[in-house]
Amino acid sequence: MKENIKILFEHYLAGKTDPEQEKILMEYLADPANADSEFHGVMEKAWTKQTRETDYSLAAVQGLAQVWDKVEERQPKSRLLFPLLKYAAAIVVIISGALGWYAYKKAQQPVQTAIAFLSKTTQKGEKVKLILPDSSIVYLGAGSKLTWPSHFVKGSLRNIQLDGEAFFEVKRDTTSPFIVHSGQMQTRVLGTSFNIYAYPKDGTFSVAVRTGKVKVSESSGGKVKDLSLLTPGMKLLYHIKARDYNIHTENITEVNAWIKNSFVFKDVSLPNMLRSLERYYNVRIELKSSKLTQCRFNATFSNKSISHVMEELRIMSGKHMEYKIDTTTKTITVWGEGCQ
Fold first, then answer.
1. What end-to-end distance do the CA atoms of the chain give, in Å?
2. Domains of the chain from N-terminus onward
3. What is the DSSP string of 284-300?
4. What pTM value is reported for the model?
5. What is the pLDDT of residues 136-165, one digit of tens each?
6. Radius of gyration of the chain (CA)
7. Nearest 10 degrees: Cα torsion 257, 263, 269, 271
8. pLDDT digits over 186-233, tens only?
């Protein structure tokens, strides 16, 4: 009997039943003793034939209202028809309930949706603190750009893009590795704090770790090559043109010193140092002597004005480097006969 009812139910949903068959089906469904889950399979087939999204538009709501209006207009002409309306109400409840259950079931399944991307670009002399969707914190340095998704998908990679310098405090999530893409370089972590220096024009890329572990890789020709696994106090310096790198130790307090206006330079060429100073202090520096390009410096400047920094560089060069500051145009001209 139940099997025949299920077949009849399928025909009803397909609009292939006659009035007599509908009466038999409605009488069966209206009986509380038959209120079990035997029709779930039939309803699942009906659900799969529905559109991917439920239509909650005004037109759809108005259309449904018109259907109910027509039902209400059918006043029973005899006592024989009155139970039929009761049965009709019963089957509407069953169908609506079952379809609603499958709609809920379908809603629980993950849906692939387009993810919007956000970005922040800082100007020279500017640094900002950002909080990402996963609660990770980023301190974005001057003249830098960070791009990240509006939300991260649990269990998937947390990919972001950096051009410039930033210090990261990554929220730990072992199921969702955090990857920073900087040109051909990739920095992968689970939860840690580290600094990345990746200005495209500088020709160098560096990663310094303050806490946790960081894996640095190089991407070339669609292939990813692992370079090194860094732990606290380690810094990797990659030379982009030569495609080689070296690793050395660094005081962990210096990893993100720039956040507090303390700038640390270790064996840095004068041209690269001047480019960094331009970003930090929002000035334009013109190097007029090729003889100074080979000069290299080790220096730390903490909360110093740009005029103080330039004077210290002049002294460190053995006073072979000269400079002039134009406060009106915020331009610094540098020249000299090399370094001592």
1. 103
2. 2-107 (no CATH), 113-259 (2.60.120.1440), 261-340 (3.55.50.30)
3. EEEE--GGGTT-EEEEE
4. 0.64
5. 999 999 999 999 999 999 999 999 999 999
6. 35
7. 130
8. 999 988 999 999 998 888 999 999 999 999 999 887 888 999 999 999
